[in-house]
Design brief:
Elements lengths: L1 H8 L3 H11 L13 H9 L21 H16 L5 H8 L1 H6 L16 E4 L20 E6 L2 E5 L2 E2 L11
Length: about 170
């Protein structure tokens, strides 16, 4: 497609890329289906794999990857629960305590006195992501509450607008 745009406009490929990005105010999304589901599943259970998301979304944007909102519900619901690839405790460790330890975030990742009160309360049987490429911001199911620094920010899958978090630098 970029080659076609460049040819039509008589410009270089890189100029066509920047024109497209500029014209849609940097809301262009590139989705490449190049991963094997078997490979993804094998990586998820490897003892050194942490689970995270690189999903970005600009408020008011028209498009984002479905995992922007649903990475962790998908991991816990589809892979840990439904496919039973790993026990729930190990799945939760891979998204909480393990990354906190690796990145030296000493007040994150565990439920313990003196730790930041960042908690997600969810129904293990109902937790799942609902987003797809047509409806990228569909709400997840099964999330009762989310606390950030002890403040409720999500109740019954609804974000309340509070932002008690802080930028973490390491």
């Amino acid at each position: 497609m970029l080659l076609d745009i460049a040819a039509e406009r008589g410009i270089t490929l890189i100029d066509a890329l920047f024109d497209v990005l500029h014209d849609d105010r940097f809301e262009t999304l590139c989705v490449m289906h190049s991963m094997s589901e078997d490979d993804v599943e094998n990586l998820m259970v490897w003892r050194r794999t942490m689970i995270g998301s690189d999903g970005l979304f600009a408020p008011g944007g028209r498009m984002a990857h479905p995992r922007c909102y649903g990475t962790f519900p998908r991991f816990l619901g589809r892979y840990a629960r439904d496919k039973a690839l790993l026990p729930p405790e190990e799945a939760i460790r891979k998204i909480t305590a393990m990354p906190a330890a690796v990145y030296g975030l000493s007040t994150k990742g565990l439920i313990r006195v003196g730790m930041d009160a960042d908690l997600t309360l969810f129904d293990e049987k109902a937790l799942i992501d609902n987003a797809d490429y047509q409806n990228f911001n569909a709400k997840n199911s099964g999330i009762a509450k989310v606390f950030v620094n002890g403040t409720v920010v999500v109740e019954d899958n609804l974000y309340n607008g509070r932002m008690p978090g802080r930028l973490l630098r390491k």
